[in-house]
Write a structure and sequence with these properties.
The chain is of the alpha+beta class. It contains 14 helices and nine strands.
Length: 434
């Protein structure tokens, strides 16, 4: 592993940080989360036009930048520093890779250029509240999260030959689901005998049978919505031969790296603000930062942030290496039914246990670091740290919310240990014990 960033990667980070410093201050952030979209739409268009942020990992021949998980992680670290409310994670981290991996050639050609240009934002609707479970970060990629049978989850049935599909059910917590132009919906089809999880596309402008309700969330900077489907017309993404749980598990490594880097950026900025505060806040005639106990607490936090950053970078690098080693989903052997045979066979095997474990551990460490830094920041800011007018409470809410949405850390670590086989020997010994 080469730990040094390339000139292009450094330029992405510098340019994005400069732009966000100008356009995403505390007042701009508070105004953005209260808009109908839940984010600053002109800023999102500027990020798309100047940096190509929505299409950062989209291939060039679809209008993207053609980068990988490392560049996405660096971008997320910068957006995490300012708690930028944006559809970056849902659009660039979840929807675009799934369309690229599973969509037909026609679907990729139609949707990916619009996503890369920033014209179209996306959201992934899962019939469960746990995104890590669907991504294989807290359990095996067996599709159990999708529900089954005739009750629970989201059900899909074919309306007739050549008449598309109809969806029924509800997704409780969909990131940016209230404003996304494109919805990818995971649903069960085939009944009891041939039950399988498939992905469906709800095209922009389709409103019949679709109800979206923005939820009141603990963290306003990460909007969520409830999506209800009642006889909603949808198109199948790719082919009807399944493989969706495995494709999501393969995607889990890069998404976990993005989330880890985002948490590291938030923790780093919260620590910077705390250091600035203790240098100026006086107690007993001297800055509180001069007390040894405060110095020790801040030093411990600094070490935690740096360790979490290293883990996040390694996870992003590992995800990039795995992606570069995988067959190209748009090879010459692809057909109109959803990608190449080699691509589908590689996806059906799921992601490498090593990369998934590394990503899960990195995410767990980043989430715990953000929680520790945010809690100490509130303590060291004193009473002002919990007031609505101060910005540090926003980082505390982000830490608490992310721990619920993308954790808990102990389950992420338990899955990583399972993938590494750490407890296999212990189970065998217990089985033969007298």
């Amino acid at each position: 592993m080469d730990a040094a960033f390339t000139e292009e990667q450094g330029e992405i980070r510098r340019t994005l940080r400069e732009l966000l410093l100008k356009r995403c201050g505390p007042e701009e952030l508070r105004a953005a989360v209260r808009t109908r979209a839940g984010h600053d739409e002109p800023l999102w268009r500027q990020l798309a036009e100047q940096l190509g942020l929505p299409g950062l990992a989209v291939e060039r021949h679809y209008g993207g930048v053609g980068c990988g998980p490392t560049e996405l992680a660096l971008a997320c670290e910068e957006t995490g520093r300012v708690l930028l409310p944006s559809p970056l994670l849902a659009t660039a981290g979840l929807v675009a890779p799934l369309v690229a991996a599973l969509g037909t050639r026609a679907q990729r050609t139609e949707l990916l250029p619009r996503i890369a240009s920033g014209e179209l934002t996306g959201a992934l609707a899962l019939p469960c509240a746990s995104l890590p479970a669907a991504l294989g970060l807290t359990g095996p990629p067996d599709g159990a999260w999708a529900g089954g049978g005739r009750a629970g989850g989201i059900q899909a049935r074919q309306a007739g030959e050549g008449r598309g599909w109809r969806l029924y059910g509800e997704a409780a917590q969909v990131l940016d689901g209230h404003s996304a132009g494109l919805l990818l919906v995971a649903a069960r089809a085939g009944g009891y005998v041939r039950g399988r999880t498939l992905l469906f596309v709800l095209r922009p402008g389709v409103v019949h049978g679709v109800r979206r309700t923005r939820l009141t969330a603990l963290d306003e900077t990460r909007p969520q919505a409830r999506v209800e489907l009642r006889d909603a017309e949808a198109d199948l993404l790719g082919a009807a031969d399944g493989g969706v749980p495995e494709a999501l598990a393969r995607l889990g490594t890069s998404v976990a790296a993005m989330l880890a880097a985002e948490a590291v950026g938030a923790a780093d900025r919260a620590l910077e603000r705390t250091v600035e505060h203790v240098r100026t806040r006086e107690q007993f005639g001297r800055p509180i930062g001069s007390f040894q106990a405060v110095k020790h607490r801040l030093a411990d936090l600094y070490v935690s942030v740096q360790a979490a950053r290293s883990a996040a970078y390694y996870a992003a690098w590992a995800a990039g290496e795995a992606a570069s080693a995988a067959p190209d989903g748009d090879s010459s052997g692809s057909d109109s039914s959803g990608g190449s045979e080699s691509s589908r066979s590689s996806e059906s095997s799921g992601g490498s246990g090593g990369e998934a474990g590394d990503a899960g551990v990195a995410l767990a460490q980043a989430l715990e670091t953000l929680q520790s830094v945010a809690a100490e920041a509130v303590q060291l800011h004193g009473g002002v740290g919990v007031t609505w007018e101060h910005d540090i409470q926003l980082y505390f809410k982000r830490a608490a919310s992310d721990g619920l949405l993308f954790g808990p850390p102990d389950r992420l670590r338990a899955r990583a240990a399972e993938l590494a086989g750490l407890f296999a020997g212990r189970a065998d010994r217990e089985a033969v014990a007298p």
